[in-house]
Amino acid sequence: MVKRGTTEHRFADVWRSLLSNHRLRKSRVSGQTPLDARTEFENDYDRVVFSSSFRRLRNKAQVFSLEPHDFVRTRLTHSFEVSTIGRSLGEGAAKSVTEKCPQLKIEPRNVGTVVATACLLHDIGNPPFGHSGEKAMGGWFESNNDANKKLKLSDQQERADLAKFEGNAQALRIATRLQWSGQDFGMNLTVATLSALIKYPCSSTEVRDDGPKPMKKFGYFKADAGAFESIRSHTGLASHNRNPLTYLMEAADDIAYATGDIEDVLKKGFVDYQTIRDMLDSTTTQESKLCITSYLDTPYTTEFASLEPRERRQLAVQRFSQMAIRLMVKSAIAGFLDHYDEIMEGRFTGDLVGVMSMSDLCTALKRIMEVHIYSHLEIAHREQTARNVIAGLLEAIIDELQDRPDGPLARSAYRPAPSHKGEVNTTSDIYRIAQRAADYVAGMTDGHALAQYQRISGMRQSF
Could you tell me the CATH number of the domain that includes residue 107? Predict the structure, then answer.
């Protein structure tokens, strides 16, 4: 029995709220039998996997857009990898917490599933061409606010929503509205899952570049404030406090990105093996150095020494990445436990990979990408493509919606987002037009966006 007034009891209440299986719309599913093995949270996971929004991630860029090489990761494969790591982090953290305080009665399976599902969703709102596309969308809206009478937005939040277009906010919008099934609230996921998804629990006008991590970006659009507030209320989160499980989702993303993308850039020849090895010498902890020598150097010089050089390098990096994931997962769980009280009380404002013992390894791997990949000429060309394609699409779609609001394209292709029952719309007409265009473009795959741009601009005909 947990005594009232103790830290354990306070956290028991927190966990109970965080793991609420409440849904924003009452589920149509009833009459569960012993043959229904799934928990409510596993049902969430399956809803995401079987959604069309998630399937489209297979043709959205992770690092390389319109990539012909099958080896290279897409947003879909990246999301599955992040989800796998997230499940391990969630179950491992929950198991460790319950071992220290059995009275909490946290089910590790549920925690792992909530984190895994949030991980599946974490990139679902990204537009085509990855973060280049995200920047291109925000840049176009920013330059067209009031320009040529195209977007006269007087409301500060409406302007900021568009000019700072944010894939994280779009992910929440997809999960709670755009993945339409003929019923309210999109996928109708539990508030536990939706809450864990929200990395930045603030609006676009509350973003602070010099503020704490949860306020560096924004997590919901003005049009979706009602869903955001309901999710926060049902999970007991106040102010700008993150859901504690969000830190595990973010750590899973960081670990997957740091390890997986190195394999891809080596395969494509963007960076050579020796450069990777040299840059890993920046690590300082014994734990990280041992990981490098045991799982990169040793396989390279012994087990794979007789192989063809290219295969030898690739296999050594793959072996290292696999073991680095395993060890960094343990390190991140330890970091969660070390900062457990701060995280549960909403006082922790950093990120788990920054406080884990192997943070230096994660930093070194990310540094390789920053130095040798994002400044590469091929990436610059792809970013240029993203800007041109997205600008052309937004321009054409908004012109169409303004000039022919009742035309066939407006009725069938650029339809407004579904409204929730009883919802009171407080946004301006022009904001709703802009968001219709943003929803349509953000939902496109890289290849479809390029094809549509070519068709609209007259480079390709389709009759």
Answer: 1.10.3210.10
Question: What secondary structure letter does DSSP report for 296?
Answer: I
Residue 151 is classified by DSSP as B
As a residue count, the chain comes to 463
Provide the pLDDT for residue 5: 44
Task: Give me the chain's average pLDDT, please.
Answer: 91
Cβ-contact 122, 253 below 8 angstroms: yes
- The answer to whether 450 and 385 are in contact (CB under 8 A) is yes
Maximal CA-CA distance, the chain: 72
> In 149-214, which residue ranges form alpha helices assigned H by DSSP?
156-163, 167-173, 191-197
The pLDDT score that the predictor gives to residue 9 is 59
> Does 55 map to a domain?
yes
Is 160 in a helix, a strand, or coil?
A: helix
- Number of domains, the chain: 1
DSSP per-residue string spanning 66-130 = T---TTS-BHHHHHHHHHHHHHHHHHHHHHHHHHH-GGG---HHHHHHHHHHHHHHTTTT--TTH
Please state, in angstroms and rounded to a whole number, the distance separating the CA atoms of residues 397 and 409. 9
Does residue 359 fall inside a structural domain? no
Residue 222, in any domain of the structure: yes
Give yes or no for residue 2 having a pLDDT over 50.
no
Q: Is 159 exposed, middle or buried (0-12, 13-18, 19+ CB in 10 A)?
A: buried
Contact 128, 444 (CB under 8 A): yes
Q: Is 222 in a helix, a strand, or coil?
A: helix
Proportion of the chain above pLDDT 70, given as a percent = 92
Residue 317 lies in a domain: no
